[in-house]
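The following block was generated as part of the benchmark described in Methods. Ligand: zinc ion.
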Amino acid sequence: TNNLTVLGLESSCDDTAAAVVRRTADGAADILSSVVFGQADLHADFGGVVPEIAARAHASKLDVAVKQALTEADLTLNAIDAIAVTAGPGLIGGVMSGVMCAKGLAAGASKPLIGVNHLAGHALTPRLTDQLNFPYLVLLVSGGHCQLLIARSATEFMRLGGTIDDAPGEAFDKVAKLIGVSQPGGPNIERAAKTGDATRFQLPRPLLDRPGCDMSFSGLKTAALRARDALIAAQGGLQPQDQCDLSAAFQSAVADVLVEKTDRAITAYLDVGPRSPAIAVAGGVAANMQIRHALENRATDRGLRFVAPPLALCTDNAAMIAWAGIERYQLGLVDDLTLAARPRWPL
Ligand code: KG4
Ligand code: ZN
């Protein structure tokens, strides 16, 4: 029950991140530093993350991120108790860069190495920020993921459902591209939607007619495309108000789907008999205020505490990896230098 200080590394998508997190003897968590280098500008011309470019950028930026994280935490590598790294799932080149960097640090400084599942990192963040007790419900919604999970322990996650096609953030980004709203699609669609009329275009609510917690967002994208094409045929193009109305319609459809599927997950979760029922959101889409508020209202209606970590801890970061590392370390789950990078790694 001493202090535990872990350096975390994250490089599974398009952010190179390093962070130092300390768990104090009284159980509180302190983020001593959290450095995130985005790569958006490197991929901007390509309309998506280019794995090859991402991997090279991670390889050259990881060292810098680690140095900066240690400097900001005012610690040397020697003062670190363990090194945690995202070992998957993600773009394999990036994950390998991170795992190799972590192995080098662990071997060089004789520190324990801990491989962390990126999704577990997201799902455990509410314990870092709000000391949430197990079991709690998590809605993980980002550019790459969409899952409803019951977090039973730091190593047990029960998947209740998820997307059968696109992740919601991916749909935000694709719809933005379709209707001429600039990237990143999520925040820009949210901004456009503020002055939009959500009722002007009727978009579907996919899979709400089917039982269970699975979701689908690619049909929404197709419906937005059809609405756009009809506007182009009728008036030659899209006016700013059309973009705002389409944005509002799309955002409301995503919010409705997420809320109704989450509602079903709440029913399954309450059946488990949690003593202090709570739901946490994680992932970049949790930054969306309409979605966040809609989820919060439903959760509160159903008697659940609602936890939304600060935005910087919702999107990809290394503090969540360091924290997940702390949780694993406390369970005695340490890896050795044979730790493999895994492109696929279900929770
Ligand atoms: O968690 P994240 O940073 O990266 C991963 O995908 O793992 O999430 C990024 C995604 C992007 O697709 C972005 O468009 C979406 O989250 N996003 C949003 C908002 N801010 C970011 N989606 C809707 N509304 C937002 N305000
Ligand atoms: Zn992520």
